[in-house]
Amino acid sequence: MTVHTVAPHRAARAARRRGLALGLLAWLAGLAFFLPVAWMVLTSLHSESDAATNPPSLGAGLTLDAYREFFDSAAGTGPWPALINSFTASTFSTLFVLLLALPAAYALSIRRVRKWTDVLFFFLSTKMLPAVAGLLPIYLIAKNSGMLDNIWLLVILYTSMNLPIAVWMMQSFLADIPVSIIEAAQIDGARLPSILARVVAPVAGPGLAATALICFIFSWNEMLFARVLTGVTAQTAPVFLTSFITSQGLFLAKVCAASVVISLPVLAAGFAAQDKLVQGLSLGAVK
Amino acid sequence: MAYRGNRRSRHTAQAVAAAGAAAALLAACSGAGGTASSGGGETVNVLMVNNPQMIELQKLTADHFTKETGIKVNFTVLPENDVRDKISQDFSNQAGQYDVATISNFEIPFFAKNRWLHPLDSYVAKDKAFDQGDILAPMRESLTAEDGKLYGQPFYGESSFLMYRKDVFAEKGLKMSDSPTWQQVADLAAKADGAKPGMKGICLRGQPGWGEVIAPLTTVVNTFGGTWFTKDWQARLTAPEFKKATKFYVDLVRRHGEAGAAQSGYAECLNNLAQGKVAMWYDATAAAGSLESAKSPVKDRIGYVQAPVDKTPSSGWLYTWAWGVQKASKHPDNAWKFISWASSKKYEALVGEKIGWENVPAGKRASTYGNADYRKAAAAFHEVTKRSITGADPRNPGVQPRPTIGIQFVDIPEFSDLGTKVSQEISAAIAGRQSVDQALNKSQALAEKVAKEYRGR
């Protein structure tokens, strides 16, 4: 009798201990991910000389000087043109990507074209060339067509860079939509546009949101092309961020403040779409 | 699957229409963007390195230059390595995005040779107020190309000198000569090491980069009688003089140099001296402005003497951030107006009045050193700075003839790559990962490859 009661107790205790250990591990992993961000925020609130000390002075007084300098950075230009450029490039490219990826994914998952797997891999193969390998030809084309330092060039580039990823993501989301829903809509006389808008889009909403956010983040953070192809008018936020780095003086606090401000839009978008994201990213995980 | 193929043609038509609309939208947008970026009217696009003097210029431009001339200046500011990349890219392609850029005396001669720059002689001749005769001779010479034409105007210039803590030296009873030898400096470093808790004897750059550790090291090599290349392009990195100088430098910084020397560059050393972590520092004369500024914790406590020597009478380097005008510039006249303002005596006075005389972009004009306000603010260092700059001989910096102009560099485009690779070897020796002999043997092989190219020309 005692044997029967003790064993489940022990098992439950062991399970609880295991759960506790796993929980602790998860917390540690979470902290490890969060620590660099927290460090960045803390450094951004220090004065330049406190930010540069080694070993770091954690308890140093807090100040908003770095943010003040960031916002009225010399000559009254400030970060706004760069932020607006980044916003333009990211928003429009995300919009175009979604407009193009949704029908493409539809043709690869719901109403499959012939050899759809080949098509899918063709999309992916365009990502296999390292981006830097395309840099020189793109620079020369941009220069000769007068598109250098033009934000719409970045919109086109980001659209084409993110399209394959978006098609892949959307394809897997749309593949999960039961065909019977679409057939039901068809029987009710719905045509393709209204099927897309009124049946597919709501069901694939979380997936769409996840895709949009990923495309937005990728374009917002893109640095390689932006650095080479922009100059006076089309400079984006990441390029502007690097302009605070100097070899003659202290800059850590300013760069951290700039990084915090520049990360905010992406963070805000992430928080806003959080519940959709979790749904979206786990969509297709369980069949 | 039953519906595949239904109304296929209509779908295709819809897709084509959508694509067409998107393309039209993009084209329309790009048109709009294009007009905005090319701009109109009176503008000049300037690409600058992010150094404090440039940031001050940026702050003063709108209220003064633009107000006086009506010319709007669009600045792009980037860190040093990025700005070099961007300038090379824009100028070598003659893309014309930038009218003016900050180009150093390292690049100006070969940029000019490649016909990427606009000669400035005609502007200088017409612009009497600019007073070209006032520009210090070594500066003028280092910005003149082989064809004898002038391709740059200095914004500020610098040489190198030795800085030391007067108070610490007095406390320890140490005496610094006005023109010390490197051996004396090594002895002083040993004595000053540990003068205060956590204080090392000297700060010397150890960070990889042709503009970092290579600059001070090459001046040591020059004065020890060594050279990178002989006049007829033979690499000499394993010659006894080069080896002796490098061993001396690496030993000094390993024994009495700053903590983390292999990662320390100009900024780290500036911080070390300002924070009382080193007693001496051999580096750019431009550092004095920061050390003597009102915010500096070591203001009035630093002594400045000439760059230490061995076999040569002087050994300071010569460096200037100068304005160069791109050949493809669409606004060369506006570009000159901007340069003429930024490098003028008037601008120096403006900085003196608005920001402080110790922050004046000095080191280019003789008149700066005659200005009473500047002399007062820079009392501690103006004389030795001027002496260092005027004493520098960019064509003849060592004991043997050189194949190119340049003191702390060899003036060929390949040097930035070669210098950086060699600097990584030297830095590894400073970190103790290899011996100086190993570092120099590898470096010699790299240098010989470059030398071979030039022997064939």
TrEMBL record, chain A:
Query: Transmembrane residues, as ranges?
Result: 20-42, 87-108, 120-139, 151-174, 195-219, 225-244, 251-273
GO cellular component terms listed in the entry, alphabetical order? plasma membrane
Q: Which cellular compartments is it found in? A: Cell membrane
Instruction: Report the Pfam families cross-referenced here.
Output: BPD_transp_1
Q: Entry's InterPro entries?
A: BP-dep_ABC_trans_perm (IPR050901), MetI-like (IPR000515), MetI-like_sf (IPR035906)
Domain (ABC transmembrane type-1): give its ranges. 83-273
Membrane-protein topology: Multi-pass membrane protein
Q: Which GO terms describe its biological process?
A: transmembrane transport
Q: Which Gene3D superfamilies does the record match to this protein? A: MetI-like
Q: What's the family?
A: Belongs to the binding-protein-dependent transport system permease family.
Q: What is this protein called?
A: Mannitol ABC transporter permease
Q: Which organism is it from?
A: Wenjunlia tyrosinilytica
- Organism classification: Bacteria, Bacillati, Actinomycetota, Actinomycetes, Kitasatosporales
UniProtKB/TrEMBL annotation, chain B:
Does the record bear ATP-binding in its keywords?
no
The record's keywords, sorted A to Z, are:
Signal
- What span is annotated as the signal peptide, if there is one? 1-32
The keyword Signal appears for this protein:
yes
Q: Which domain of life is it from?
A: Bacteria
An example Pfam family from this entry, by short name, is SBP_bac_1
| Record-linked InterPro entries | Bact_solute-bd_prot1, SBP
The family database entries (Gene3D superfamilies) matched by this protein are listed as: Periplasmic binding protein-like II
Q: What is this protein called?
A: Sugar ABC transporter substrate-binding protein
Tell me what organism the protein belongs to: Wenjunlia tyrosinilytica
The root-end lineage is: Bacteria, Bacillati, Actinomycetota, Actinomycetes, Kitasatosporales
